[in-house]
Amino acid sequence: MVRTGKASRRGRPRDAELPRRRREEILERAALRFAEHGYAATDVQHLADDLGIGKGTVYRYFPSKRALFLAATDRGMRLLHERVEEGSAGARDPLEQVRYAIRAYLSFFDSHPEYAELLIQERAAFRDRKVPTYFAHHEARIGKWQRLMQGLIAAGRVRAMPVERILSVASDLLYGTMLANHFTGRRASFEEQAESLLDVMFHGILVGRERARRGRRA
Amino acid sequence: MVRTGKASRRGRPRDAELPRRRREEILERAALRFAEHGYAATDVQHLADDLGIGKGTVYRYFPSKRALFLAATDRGMRLLHERVEEGSAGARDPLEQVRYAIRAYLSFFDSHPEYAELLIQERAAFRDRKVPTYFAHHEARIGKWQRLMQGLIAAGRVRAMPVERILSVASDLLYGTMLANHFTGRRASFEEQAESLLDVMFHGILVGRERARRGRRA
Amino acid sequence: MVRTGKASRRGRPRDAELPRRRREEILERAALRFAEHGYAATDVQHLADDLGIGKGTVYRYFPSKRALFLAATDRGMRLLHERVEEGSAGARDPLEQVRYAIRAYLSFFDSHPEYAELLIQERAAFRDRKVPTYFAHHEARIGKWQRLMQGLIAAGRVRAMPVERILSVASDLLYGTMLANHFTGRRASFEEQAESLLDVMFHGILVGRERARRGRRA
Amino acid sequence: MVRTGKASRRGRPRDAELPRRRREEILERAALRFAEHGYAATDVQHLADDLGIGKGTVYRYFPSKRALFLAATDRGMRLLHERVEEGSAGARDPLEQVRYAIRAYLSFFDSHPEYAELLIQERAAFRDRKVPTYFAHHEARIGKWQRLMQGLIAAGRVRAMPVERILSVASDLLYGTMLANHFTGRRASFEEQAESLLDVMFHGILVGRERARRGRRA
DNA sequence: CATGAATGAGTATTCATTCAT
DNA sequence: TATGAATGAATACTCATTCAT
Fold first, then answer.
1. What does the pLDDT read at residue A127?
2. Contact B199/A124, CB-based, under 8 Å?
3. Alpha carbon of B153 to those of A68, B93, B156: distances in Å?
4. Could you say which residues 189-218 of protein chain B have a Cβ atom less than 7 A away from any atom in strand E?
5. D60 contacts in A (CB within 8 Å)?
6. Which residues of chain C have pLDDT under 70?
7. Record: contact B124-A121, CB cut-off 8 A
8. What pLDDT, in 10s, does the model give residues C155-209?
9. Mean pLDDT of A1-24
10. Contact present, A18 and A63 (Cβ < 8 Å)
11. Contact C156 D207 (CB under 8 A)
12. Tell me, in Å, how far CA of D66 is from C1' of E7?
């Protein structure tokens, strides 16, 4: 109590990190609860109980349940892209970068299925949002992969075709795989799944002769 | 008085067709409203007003809001599969059947985006359902396509690879495309999309030389 | 259809009794259902199903659920008083008439507990009724017993005391016994109960010496 | 800052007395409203308006309308028994204790007719309850009076007869009197009623000669 | 800063009654 | 006369948010 005035750096150091950590704790727990019970059925009171803090405290960190949910979802998407970046960073060859990115994507949702759930809950609860969090992040990241594909086409390694086609097919395939995994409880390892995807994406399913025949037609 | 014909016994006779027609009307309108407002925000009263019938009448046909929703979703999936059957029935060549089925699938959701929405709403509102309606129908229909693919492989037109791989990739790609279309408001025509999908699925994105190189590696 | 006009006594004899019988059937079944489920929880539809008739038919016999309930209750009270009359009619001696009346009363509710229940339901559901059915009937019948008691006092067999006192105590005792039996599921035979009541009512519980002592005081 | 006294830790401190008082207030008002309108017709919203609090606040204190009703009824029975205890405690002589207990019982319902109504409402609304509140309390209190009667018989002041007989007759008489008072709007003062009951209970209605005659028979 | 008591808007469902046939 | 399809009024309870302490 003494010297409260001048005590600047001395005395009990305000833990400037505490708020940040608590915020993260809340978001992490919220993601799990929202995913487990759904948005509407998740009670802020119960979340607070879970965290061992007061309900009012949750509201000190987030202005509303909605904001809390969206922050949790957004955090999930940031984590996803960090993992994907890390994954693809390991490879030098562009095609290998693609491969590792896909593995990282599937791996992330494999270990964090709650974020798949949040994407669905978001859509169902907030019909008004113009751009769902997932696609907002997607848009922000897609440019890098467009350039990468462009390079591969220029290098004559990937067929000359619109990069948008490649990327939209790949994106939709990943998105569909992730959701279907979540909804059906599929058990295949993410490594196998990644190889399946890549096999079809890279080589197609037709044999050479059939490709040639159709090529003439198309 | 004798021989009244379809002589109803006592009391108000029933028009055996009316219930069927009214049921369909309710389901169709319900699908649109549930898709527009979301499950929770859809008031049965408003739906009834929309239809120009009493709320109690809705409950005569469906025991609960939940049952009504699920029936509407199920009807949507039945319509989807009818369209897909019709679409693929037009072609003789198996690969063309695949092509037409995919076009029909995308076309259906293009003209009935409400059913894409219902699939999401279902998941969000009924976390307890073991198998989502979409995948229940999917399971029931997949066998036909497995046999078709098997045939194509046997005929040497499709590469020798697990049919499960082909079908799961194709299914997830369609599912992801459909949802992404719905969520992002994509404008591409379903015909173009079908061709994009098929192009990648059938031929892969790599050039022959790259395929060969990777083939050696893999 | 021919001769409908003049066909008076000839032709198919209209069963003038049918409506009366059906009315009784409805009342009897209604009493049981109202007693079993309570007034509010008794569904007219279920009652009709029970009887194998249409719901509208019930409404042809009784203008409302309320009227049906009250008619069923009223019928019960009429049956009660018939039994009591029959019971007491067997004895010549007035005190024995009292005894048999009490036995008949308890016997009736023993075999028809549903009417005890209806009395409660009536009160709970129809707060507005000025005089409950039970007490309306009671009022109409009490005169006879007043005269009987008057005679017994005049004959010097019953103590000189206000007959109202005797009758209100006796009435309340019977009423309380009947309800308590119903609510607590008491198992004593109605014969024993009648004897217990009469023993106390007739002789009091005090020994002669104590009566004398208190008599001086009172 | 030090020694804040009852130093509440963090957050809004609670007035430990307030909840208790508010609970009582709610129960008292609820008893009156439930009695006035009946259980079903009593709207929790109106009760809250009456009390000048929010509906949600009522639900903070009682988990359901049913629980609120039962708590109000239970409180009434506790009040009843307190009055009876107080009443009988004033007398030394056991017979006088009986007399004062009966006066207190009738007096209580005379000033609190709402509790007579609650007993009826309880039965009508909660058919499922195994033991109605009234009889549950009754059971818990009856032992004392059994011992008292036993003593009076042993002392030769009350006739040798089963104490159960005495107590069940007395109980049913009180119960019937209380309910009949309530249902018929009887106006007699509770003092007079008590004397009437006791006169009959203690002395019986027969004259000595008749008692003797019947005694020989019975 | 943290807390949790207080609030009140919002909604699915039942069932008595009507009346066309 | 008998029926049952259609109707719509009526009501408990939850939970996000606020704000006094």
1. 87
2. no
3. 51, 14, 5
4. none
5. none
6. 1-15, 215-218
7. yes
8. 999 999 999 999 999 999 999 999 999 999 988 899 999 999 999 999 999 998 9
9. 59
10. no
11. yes
12. 21
The Å distance, CA of D19 to C1' of F17, is 22
- What's the sign of the alpha-carbon dihedral B165, A173, B32, A67? positive
Domain boundaries, chain D: 65-205
D183's tokens: 């249902």
Per DSSP, the three-state class of C158 is strand
Out of A38, A134, A184, whose CB is closest to B127?
A: A38
Is the model's pLDDT at A16 over the cut of 60? yes
Task: Record the tokens describing residue D101, joined without a space.
Answer: 């207990």
Q: Which of B166, B183, B209 sits opposite A123 (nearest CB)?
A: B183
Quick one: which residue's CA is nearest to E15's C1'?
C43
A109 and A116 in contact (C-beta within 8 Å)?
A: yes
Shortest Cα–Cα distance, B165 to chain A (Å) = 6
D154 burial (CB, 10 Å; 0-12 / 13-18 / 19+) is: exposed
Q: Which CATH number fits domain B65-205: 3.40.190.150, 1.10.357.10, 3.30.420.10, 3.30.1340.30?
A: 1.10.357.10
pLDDT in tens, D177-209: 999 999 998 888 999 999 999 999 999 999 989
- Chain B residues with CB under 8 Å of C56 CB are 11
Say yes or no: Cβ of D14 under 7 A from any atom of strand E.
yes
Three-state secondary structure string covering chain B: CCCCCCCCCCCCCCCCHHHHHHHHHHHHHHHHHHHHHCCCCCCHHHHHHHHCCCHHHHHHHCCCHHHHHHHHHHHHHHHHHHHHHHHHHCCCCHHHHHHHHHHHHHHHHHHCHHHHHHHHHHHHHCCCCCCCHHHHHHHHHHHHHHHHHHHHHHCCCECCCCHHHHHHHHHHHHHHHHHHHHHHCCCCCHHHHHHHHHHHHHHCCECHHHHHHHHHHC
Contact: D203, C180; criterion CB under 8 Å: no
- The residue type found at C130 is K
Cα separation, B168 vs B146, whole angstroms: 10
Distance CA D173, CA D202 (A): 13
Binary contact (D159, C203; C-beta < 8 A): yes
Is the CB of A118 inside 8 Å of chain B's CB atoms?
A: no
Length of chain C: 218
pLDDT tens column, B155-193 = 999 999 999 999 999 999 999 999 999 999 888 899 999
Q: Which residue has the tokens 């082909």?
A: B166
Instruction: State which residue of chain C sits closest to B1, comparing Cα positions.
Output: C1
Q: pLDDT tens across B20-71, in order?
A: 889 999 999 999 999 999 999 999 999 999 999 999 999 999 999 999 999 9
Question: Which of C159, C168, C183 is opposite residue D123, by nearest beta carbon?
Answer: C183
CA distance linking residue D218 with residue C99, whole number of Å: 13
Q: What residues 44-83 of chain A have any CB closer than 8 A to a CB of chain B?
A: none
C103-131 b/e (C-beta count within 10 Å ≥ 16 → b): bbbbbbbbebebbbbbbbbbbbbbeeeee
Q: What span, in angstroms and rounded, lies between the C-alpha atoms of C130 and C143?
A: 21
Residues 6+ apart with CB under 8 A from C117: C34, C35, C182
Question: What's the gap in Å between the CA of D25 and the closest CA on chain A?
Answer: 27
Report pLDDT for C128. 83
| Phi, psi dihedral angles at A194 (to 5 degrees) | -60, -45
Average pLDDT over residues D69-98: 96
Instruction: Point out the residue among A165, A183, A204 whose CB comes nearest to the CB of B196.
Output: A165
Asked if C214 is an interface residue toward chain D (Cβ–Cβ < 8 A), one would say yes
**A38:B202 CB<8 A:** no
- Chains A and B, touching by 3 or more CB pairs within 8 angstroms: yes
Residues 6 or more apart in contact with residue D45 via CB below 8 angstroms? D55
Q: Does residue A8 register a pLDDT over 50? A: no
